[in-house]
Amino acid sequence: MLSKHRLMVPGPTPLPPAVTAAATRPMEDERTVRFAALFTRVVDNLRRLIRTENEVLVFTSSTTGAFESAVQNLFSPGDRVLVANNGAFGQRWVEMSRAYGLEVVEVRAPWGEEIDPARVAAALAADPGITAAMCVHCETSTGVVNDIQGFGEAAAGVLTLVDSASGLGACDLRADEWGLDVVVSGGQKALMTPPGVAFLSVSDRAWERHAEARLPRYYFDWGAARDAYAAAIPRTSWTPAIGVLVALDAALEQLFAEGLDAVFDRHRTLGRLARSGLRGAGLELLTPAQDRHASVTAAYVPDGIDADQLVDLVAERYGVQIVGGSGPLAGRIIRLGHCGYIDALDVISAIAAVELSLRELGAPVQPGAGTVSAMQLLSSTTEARTPNGALIALAAGLEREYQS
């Protein structure tokens, strides 16, 4: 039987047709006025998305590369930093910081629970030698979205670094209003772009720290990136992923055509549908049932079921690609991504595939219980009766441009 491939992982995510089309444009030289205009527009739109007046630097790398640049450019050997750690990516920043010779103070929470900003404030008050605090916005390994506004307030006395790889574009984030010095993200998740481009915003306070930092850097040197962008023809300091930047430009245009408030509302709705469907199928949620958790939903599989086997079966039988857990959650959970170019019927299709596969593996799942639960919730929302807002807004914008 024909199976249409549905990519329902937290990232990389499906690409809108306009983004795919943009990525197929003929290759061009990045050192031209024409490409510089596109690059400048991308940087300006990233600044709008992060909601900051600070500078934004762009690198050809994964988000981890951009975060590593923050460690290299902000610290000196022996500096003490606080890392809020409640999942695989919090643990990554612990390991990375230690790899560069930093002393790490951890504020830990169990995987699946949020970081309490009060504990961050207490740890900082107890250790005045800490110079910076790091936190993951959306912990992709569990779907938990931390209270970044609360984190910014708790850590206001030190430099604040936030990893928003799977949060930016799906969950509200206000860098300047929340006092965030550095926000790091990439294009391959909620921003609906192929992997290969990462970026970060840098506050004035972070630039002051950069001037004093003594860790080695070369490719990821913020000073070189800043100088390249300030050149007569703005560019990156090294050869960029040109096709990915062109695709990111199209994706950002589509997000702003839809409107950020509408984008966040859409993701909140998809999160509700995923949670409702998985619970209806009899699964216990790991991701908290709150609207803030809008990018990825994780749930425990029933006793006697191996999550990785379930993931493989869902893909093999029904062409739906979800993902399992890692670390202490390996083999115990499934994760359903719903950020970026995903709609309600994508989520419902994934729930149906999970239900059918669970039954095949012997779990006592009532056929349709999860999908009916999600469909009932969908039918009660205004969005159920609204066509694709992003495409309508984009079409309206193109029509206005044509008429002018």
Count of structural domains: 2
Strand adjacency order, main sheet: 2-10-9-8-5-3-4
Strand content: 15-25%
Q: Return Rg in Å.
A: 21 Å
Distance between the termini: 48 Å
Low-confidence stretches: 389-404
**Molecular shape:** globular
Q: Using the coordinates above, name the CATH class of the largest domain.
A: Alpha Beta
Classify the fold: give the CATH topology of the largest domain.
Answer: Aspartate Aminotransferase, domain 2
Helix content: 40-55%
Secondary-structure element order, N to C: EHHEHEHEHEEEHEEEHHHHEEHEEEHHH
- Individual helix count: 14
Query: What name goes with the CATH superfamily of the largest domain?
Result: Type I PLP-dependent aspartate aminotransferase-like (Major domain)
Mean pLDDT metric: 94
> Judging by the overall fold, what is the CATH architecture of the largest domain?
3-Layer(aba) Sandwich
Number of strands: 15
Structure description:
44% of the residues lie in helices and 16% in strands. By secondary structure, it is α/β, with parallel strands linked by helices. Strands 2-10-9-8-5-3-4 form a seven-stranded mixed beta sheet, with helices on both faces. A four-stranded antiparallel beta sheet has the order 11-12-15-14, with helices on one face. It has a two-stranded parallel sheet with strand order 1-13. Helix 5 packs parallel to helix 6, helix 9 packs across helix 14 and helix 10 packs antiparallel against helix 13. The longest helix is centred in the C-terminal third of the chain and has 21 residues. It is globular and about 60 Å long.
